[in-house]
Write a structure and sequence with these properties.
alpha/beta; six-stranded parallel sheet
């Protein structure tokens, strides 16, 4: 299995989290500069469309990019506090009117002050087609940063689907 991990703004994948993901397959974790590339989603699509990626995992801005990339590549996705309703950098979104049947699992922290869970929920309810297989995990004590224990638990749940 090939896993594409998309980090948030200036927060690359840690060794501990990479080790968790490597239990499930090969991990691709590109170093992304969202601020300097307003076409990051298209760039990622062009880069990975022929690389046999099986799953996309993203956090914050990487969750934003991962959401749209999962639609373009028709892949399941695990998204931690994705910046769907707003994002810190300008990003062009390619035509993603695509609806796929793969799982999209959202992990939203109710203590997140950076990306409010209620804003993400509103976005999901209004803009994610009901044809998608969607799971939403609301974690009452989770803030924006994802502790290793939460990361491991959610990754395990995702892969057990």
């Amino acid at each position: 299995m090939n896993i594409l991990f998309l980090h948030g703004l200036e927060s690359p994948l840690t060794i501990d989290k990479k080790n968790i993901l490597e239990k499930y397959g090969n991990v691709f974790a590109p170093d992304l500069n969202y601020k300097s590339n307003p076409n990051m989603i298209q760039f990622l699509y062009d880069e990975y469309q022929n690389q046999s990626i099986d799953v996309i995992i993203g956090s914050s801005m990487g969750g934003f990019a991962g959401f749209y990339l999962s639609k373009l590549l028709k892949l399941p996705a695990l998204l931690f506090n994705p910046a769907l309703p707003y994002h810190a950098t300008e990003q062009n979104i390619p035509n993603t009117e695509i609806v796929h049947q793969h799982l999209i699992q959202f992990v939203l922290g109710l203590q997140d002050e950076t990306i409010k869970a209620e804003d993400n929920l509103s976005y999901i309810l209004n803009f994610v087609p009901r044809a998608n297989d969607i799971r939403i995990h609301l974690l009452k004590d989770l803030a924006h940063r994802i502790p290793i224990t939460v990361f491991e638990s959610e990754v395990n749940l995702f892969f057990k689907k």
